[in-house]
Amino acid sequence: MLRTMVSERAREHFRRIAEAEAELNAESVRHDAQQSPGDNIARGLELSEFAAAFGADLEGPDKVSPATLWQMRKRQAPTQR
After folding, report:
1. For a designed S-S bond to 56, which of 5, 6, 36, 52 qualifies (C-beta 3.0 to 4.6 A apart)?
2. Closest alpha carbon to 49 in 62, 40, 58
3. Is pLDDT of 16 > 80?
């Protein structure tokens, strides 16, 4: 018999978290749908500035683009089969 690694109590806990998150997401979508496009754009820009405040360097372009870094990592990663 295979023993479960997650208790039913933990599953229920995370299920309730997921339900609350889904409800909040739906409420946010409803709210955004009632706003004007300009208000949504302004809100998006504010959120971008907020996110950038956590370590983004906006002084200039990236020294190495994220696409280039991704390509380099992809070439270096061993193939998994």
Report:
1. 52
2. 58
3. yes
Task: Annotate 30-51 with b (16+ C-beta within 10 A) or e (fewer).
Answer: eeeeeeeeeeeeeeeeeeeeee
Tokens standing for 29? 């979508």
Structural tokens at position 46: 């504010």
Residues in the chain, total = 81
Q: Does the pTM of the predicted model rise above 0.85?
A: no
Which DSSP letter does residue 47 get? H
Spatial CA neighbour of 34 closest among 23, 43, 47: 43
